[in-house]
From TrEMBL:
Keywords for the protein's UniProt record, in alphabetical order: Membrane, Transmembrane, Transmembrane helix
Molecular function terms from GO: 2,3-dihydroxybenzoate-serine ligase activity; phosphopantetheine binding
InterPro entries membership: CAT-like_dom_sf, Condensation_dom
Domain of life: Bacteria
Gene Ontology process terms (BP): amino acid activation for nonribosomal peptide biosynthetic process; enterobactin biosynthetic process
The protein, known as: Condensation domain-containing protein
Keyword Transmembrane among UniProt keywords: yes
Keyword check for Transmembrane helix: yes
Domain annotation Condensation: ranges: 25-343
Transmembrane segments: 251-275
Species in which this protein is naturally found: uncultured Lysobacter sp
Amino acid sequence: MSDPFQALTRYAEQRVRNTEPRARRVPATSAQRAMVLMEQLAGGRTGYSVRHAYQLRGRLDIAALTNALQHVLSMHGALRTRFQMQSDTLWQLVEPEPRLDLAMFDLTGSAIRRSLAEVIDDRLTEPLDLELGPVMRAELYTVEEQLHALVLCTHHATNDATSVAIVGQDLSAAYEHFIDAGTALPLPPRQFDGFAEAEAAISHEDAAAYWASLLADAPATGLPFDLQPGPDPTFEALWVRRKVEHNLDGLAALAAANGTSVFLVLLTAIGIAVARQAGNADRAVLATTVSTRPEEYERTVGPFVNTISVLIPAGAQFEVALKETASQLRRSLDHAAVPFEDVAPVGTQVESMPVLPV
């Protein structure tokens, strides 16, 4: 006969586990699936770590800063998200409570002659655990008594460029509140997991037909490489900077004369250059990343990104090509709410992992 005390203990422990708040489980978006997959394949060397860095001057209240960070995490579910693969489906699990430790590094007495930027860059390469979490790492560097650097490292699968600005604004407002209770705390916005659910419910039929029609018989963009890619993706690259000596007002004037933007002028020019390099005289297909952030999610942290393809009529006169590219981009953006990777024709899929689309 089993010990009644042990049986009672097991019963109590089970009751505690059953009453603990559970993580909200929602299917990952297409963009999240792609980034998490690449992270697994490359072992944390994808460059998908996103750094939020803030220089803090003056007297710093560490307790207020810690409370502000916890409040920002409680506001934005994406920053409390971890990922789990179950039955061939990648799920995002949104934890109910924030989990974040502020690591502190005192560099005031350090004998190491390295710049703060170099120290922070080294930390950026340390991968985040997307399965166990947390997906945000917070570090505070004391450079002088009244000079600090706050570095938040997150993963691109949980935020984007707009999210970086949102986090900075909310963190500043929350810190002010914990310094002076008279200031208002920022309110939680709509959550990214709601967007993920809405994306999963969208019908793909119209978008699939559109992309199939657009990319039918599209030329392969086979650019010549100076170096052949290796068998495994390394995601290591160099920045190449060129100073443009000439005045660029002509680009703005050309865009204005055609009722479009400088971005579209440059996109069309790149498409024509790619077509020539690839030996395609008349057309080039470029892939670009766009924001798919609906208005109701303008204050939401999350990876609101999608890939769309744009067909550039490279054989036409430039002004004609520019207007056609602008028209075609508008049509493509109408289908940007549907993940391109989910509806792209089979022939447009990347054949080899190391060779990425333009």
